Task: inverse folding
C-alpha cells in the first residue's frame, strides 16, 4: 500500500470533505491490503450496530468488517455502498468481549490491481448502541 497516498485525505467523502483513502503502490504486485483497527469500549448486554460506507475508483476491491464475532463484507463499486453489522445484546457477553478484545477490524484488499486506479474510499464509520 502507498503509505504517502493513503490515510484520511480530503475529497471523496460520502457526507463530508474527507474519507479514509487506501491506494496500492503503482508497479507492485497486483494486490494489496490495508486494515483499520479500533478497540472501543463495549458494554455487556448492549446491542450495537457497526456501519461503514465504501467505494473504489475501479470496481472489484473488497471491504470486510469483523466486530464482536460477526463479519460481513462487500465488493466495491464506483458508488458508495454500506456494510451494516448488528450484534444483539444477548450475544454481547463478558466472555465475547474478552475473546475479541472489543476489536473492530476493517479489512480493505484489492486483488485485481495496484496504483491510484484501484484506490478505495471508506467513510462514515460508526458504532452505535441500538
Result:
Amino acid at each position: 500500500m502507498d503509505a504517502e497516498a493513503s490515510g484520511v485525505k480530503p475529497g471523496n467523502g460520502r457526507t463530508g470533505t474527507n474519507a479514509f483513502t487506501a491506494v496500492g503502490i503503482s508497479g507492485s504486485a497486483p494486490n494489496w491490503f490495508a486494515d483499520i483497527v479500533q478497540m472501543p469500549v463495549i458494554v455487556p448486554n448492549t446491542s450495537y450496530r457497526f456501519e461503514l460506507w465504501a467505494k473504489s475508483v475501479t470496481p472489484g476491491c473488497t471491504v470486510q468488517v469483523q466486530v464482536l464475532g460477526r463479519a460481513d463484507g462487500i465488493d466495491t463499486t464506483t458508488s458508495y455502498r454500506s456494510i451494516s453489522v448488528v450484534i444483539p445484546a444477548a450475544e454481547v457477553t463478558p466472555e465475547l468481549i474478552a475473546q475479541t478484545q472489543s476489536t473492530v477490524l476493517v479489512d480493505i484488499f484489492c486483488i485485481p490491481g495496484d496504483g491510484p486506479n484501484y484506490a478505495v474510499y471508506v467513510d462514515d464509520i460508526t458504532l452505535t448502541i441500538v
Strands lie at 7-10, 18-22, 32-38, 48-56, 62-67, 70-75, 81-87, 104-110, 120-129. Residues 25 and 58 are 15 Å apart (CA to CA). The chain has one helix and nine strands.
